[in-house]
Amino acid sequence: MDRQAPNAKAILRILLDAQVEFVVVGSVAAAFWGADVGIPGDLDIVPAMTHENLTRLMHALGRINGTPFPAVGCWVLQGSERVWESFSLEDPRYAQVPTLDPVHGESFDTLVHTRYGTLDIVPELSGVYHDLKNIAPVMKIEDVGACAVMSLEDLLNRLTVPRREKDAPRVQQLRSIQRQMMLSKE
C-alpha cells in the first residue's frame, strides 16, 4: 500500500461530522497557516486519546473505508527524542496490520489508507492532544468549518528540531508569516 495525497478537507469534514476531537499538525497545518507545502503526502492529526473519542474516530474511519497500513516500523524513545526504527523483514511485527482498538489507544498510532487519501494518526509525536489543544487556534477552513490547527509557534518548534531537509523552506515561509502577523499587530 502506498501513501496517497489526501483530500484533507474531505477527511476533516468526516472527522468533524463524527465529533472527533483532534488537532491538525504537519504539512497540512503549515498549509493552513499559508505556507506553500506542495502536495502533502498525508494528513497528520493528533487525536484526544479518550476511549469515547477513539471510538468516534474508529467509526469515522469506517465511513471513509479507513484501513491501517501494514507495519514497517515504529517510533522508539532514544534519550529524550522519539526516532523512527524500521522493522527488519525477519521481525514478526513486519507487515502486521494493526487492529484499531479504543481500549488500547496506542493501536491508533498508525497510517491509515482512506478513500480520500492517507491519514497519519500521531497521538504523541507532535505533542499530545491536551497540550496542543490548549494553544491551537480554531481556524475557519473553507469547505470544512472550524478546526483546531497546531499553533504557528508550536509548528515552528516541531519543524526545527530535529530538522528534516524538506522542512527548511517551510520553516522560512512560516517565519515570514509569523513576522507579518507580528507587524500587523503593531
Description:
This protein is α+β, with helices and mostly antiparallel strands and 186 residues long. It has a single domain (8-66, 104-185), classed as 2-Layer Sandwich (Beta Polymerase, domain 2), CATH 3.30.460. It has six helices and nine strands. The chain has helices at 8-17, 26-32, 51-63, 129-135, 152-160, 168-185, and strands at 22-25, 43-47, 67-68, 73-78, 81-86, 110-114, 117-121, 138-141, 145-148. The model has no long low-confidence stretch (mean pLDDT 90).
Descriptors:
186 residues, alpha+beta, Beta Polymerase, domain 2, two-stranded antiparallel sheet, globular
Overall mean confidence score, pLDDT: 90
Beta-strand percentage?
15-25%
Shape verdict? globular
Q: What strand order characterises the main sheet?
A: 1-2-7-6-3
- Strands, count: 9
Rounded to the nearest angstrom, the radius of gyration is 16 Å
Distance between the termini: 49 Å
Just give the CATH class. Answer: Alpha Beta
The H/E string reads HEHEHEEEEEHEEHH
Architecture (CATH level 2) name:
2-Layer Sandwich
Structural class per helix/strand content? alpha+beta
Remind me, CATH topology? Beta Polymerase, domain 2
Helix content: 25-40%
Number of domains: 1
